[in-house]
Specification:
EC number: 1.15.1.1
CATH topology of the largest domain: Helix Hairpins
Distance between the termini: 30 Å
Order of helices and strands: HHHHHHHHEEEHHH
Structural class: mainly alpha
Protein name: Superoxide dismutase
GO molecular function, one term: superoxide dismutase activity
Strand content: 5-15%
Keywords: Metal-binding, Oxidoreductase, Signal
CATH architecture of the largest domain: Orthogonal Bundle
Low-confidence stretches: 1-36
Mean pLDDT: 88
CATH superfamily of the largest domain: Fe,Mn superoxide dismutase (SOD) domain
Pfam family, one: Sod_Fe_C
Number of domains: 2
Bound molecules: manganese (III) ion
């Protein structure tokens, strides 16, 4: 990275005047894939708490290996690259950065949006999946019945929303501090935190999440994915949302 673009890499919030109108070339460089040797830094890839074949036949081991070990790892590596010259980024909470992207210098906004969004989304994604995930119970089940029309309608609506998402993106269930649930979709690696909301759970509908096994059959993947959901973890996240402590 040139010293010129390095000078662009600073938070506007530091009080140093942001450089206006960073050239598009800087955006393109910043969005490049991770280098072969991933840099170390404050961001780390959370390890999976289950083996990569835990969800077969619904999600194959190879997809899990590539999705976690390559795609998510690339977001982490890209963040560590940005953090070399923006150390504040490494210690900030997901929600404080993603909820305030306009505070970032233009030269890093695009990279942070995509890669911190991707890191947050995938951290949530691995967390809310698990083998023998059970069924929704208690407060979560009551909220699904109250806000989403019951489990069958919820799953149908969630799958339909994920199927409609054009191109790459996510389908989420958001949760308010009052515990109210809603389905929403987001393009690319955007996250509800960007609008001050929280994701209770979500499914990745990027082709990299399913293409090896399902090719163009996203609807089949969306249906099968429910077999991987860890409802005990979602209950924990629901409680955290109501306590105001739910991050990514
Ligand atoms: Mn993904």
């Amino acid at each position: 990275m040139s010293s010129m673009s390095r000078r662009h890499l600073m938070f506007a919030a530091t009080g140093i005047a942001a450089v206006a109108a960073a050239p598009r070339l800087v955006f393109a460089q910043a969005a490049a894939p991770a280098p072969a040797a991933a840099p170390t830094g404050p961001f780390t890839l959370p390890p999976l708490t289950y083996p990569t074949n835990a969800f077969e036949p619904h999600i194959d081991a190879k997809t899990m290996e590539i999705h976690h070990g390559k795609h998510h790892a690339a977001y982490v590596a890209n963040l560590n690259n940005v953090a070399k010259t923006n150390s504040q980024l490494g210690t900030a909470k997901f929600e404080d950065v993603l909820g305030n992207l306009n505070a970032l210098d233009d030269s890093i906004k695009f990279t942070v949006r995509n890669n911190l969004g991707g890191h947050a989304n995938h951290t949530m994604f691995w967390e809310i999946m698990g083998p023998n995930g059970g069924k929704p119970e208690g407060e979560v089940l009551a909220a699904i019945d109250r806000d989403l029309g019951g489990m069958e309608k919820f799953q149908n609506d969630f799958n339909a929303a994920g199927g409609r998402q054009f191109g790459s993106g996510w389908v989420f269930v958001t949760v308010s501090k009052e515990g109210k649930l809603a389905i929403e979709t987001r393009p690319n690696q955007d996250n509800p935190m960007m609008d001050g909301r929280r994701a209770l759970m979500g499914n990745d509908v990027w082709e990299h999440a399913y293409y090896l096994n399902y090719q163009n059959r996203r609807a089949d993947y969306l249906k099968a994915w429910w077999n991987t959901v860890n409802w005990a973890k979602i209950a924990e996240r629901y409680a955290a949302a109501k306590a105001g402590t739910l991050g990514a």
